[in-house]
Specification:
By secondary structure, the protein is of the alpha/beta class. The protein is built from 6 helices and 11 strands.
């Protein structure tokens, strides 16, 4: 690496980049976060994304590039998670050979030993995309502390650079902000940890059920750093019996 003159800088041509998820949502070595409150279908949405990426099929209307995917899942017991995956496989008739799952209870990615363990898995399956669900289980520090969150983000950046992977994080939403009795939409700052995550990722998707216990999810896109155009909020419906996800169209 060396400084470039203006002429050299303008003469440089970037390599062609095929988007992993269309509309600028995720590119190779990119970073995206899915955020939502409790029971907003975050983990199931992540599972649907994993299957669509690993088969190259459209995800809720967004084109995808066929990718090897590693899902690291720390919140749901393996037996219960296997049951959900099995239901999804039969309901969606998808059975990719390049989709890998790792279910564990203890992995801290702000620590050297945690990153080393994840690197072992990367070396074994060679994924292009890693989905980590949820964030609070892989950070030993305080998610409200900038220094602690930066430690986590810096280690992931090193991992991205070294192994050329894209990262998808699943994260809980922070507490609602109420203004004059109404919920205030915090947009890109919706994740617990606030601007520390919003300032780091390329895209942020916010999930919120239409009503408590509903299988209809409102999906918003408050942060799109790499998208040329805004993406309007959409309604997604999940069939509980077979876990088929359907984009029901945009919202005004």
């Amino acid at each position: 690496m060396k400084p470039e003159s203006l002429a050299e800088f303008l003469a440089w041509r970037p390599p062609y980049i095929s988007q992993l998820i269309g509309n600028g949502l995720l590119i190779p070595q990119g970073k995206i976060i899915l955020v939502g409150p409790y029971k907003s279908w975050k983990s199931m949405t992540a599972m649907d994304l994993a299957f669509k990426l690993s088969t190259g099929k459209s995800w809720l209307g967004f084109e995808t590039t066929l990718s090897t995917v590693l899902v690291v899942q720390l919140e749901i017991p393996k037996a219960a998670y296997q049951k959900r995956v099995n239901k999804y496989v039969f309901g969606n008739k998808l059975n990719p050979s390049n989709l890998y799952f790792m279910t564990t209870r203890n992995l801290k990615l702000d620590k050297g030993w945690g990153i080393a363990l994840l690197e072992q898995w990367i070396t074994e399956v060679k994924p292009q995309v890693i989905i980590i669900d949820p964030v609070f289980k892989v950070v030993s520090g305080r998610l409200s502390d900038e220094y602690d969150v930066r430690q986590f983000e810096d280690r992931l950046d090193e991992l991205i650079e070294k192994h050329k992977v894209a990262i998808v994080l699943i994260h809980h939403e922070g507490k609602d902000m109420i203004v004059d009795g109404e919920r205030y939409d915090r947009g890109a700052d919706a994740s617990f940890g606030s601007v520390f995550f919003g300032a780091w990722v390329d895209s942020l998707i916010e999930l919120r059920t239409e009503s408590e216990g509903s299988n209809r999810v409102i999906m918003r896109f408050p942060l799109l750093r790499l998208a040329e155009d805004d993406i309007k909020p959409m309604m997604v419906e999940i069939n509980r019996s077979n876990l088929v996800f359907t984009n029901k169209g945009g919202l005004e």
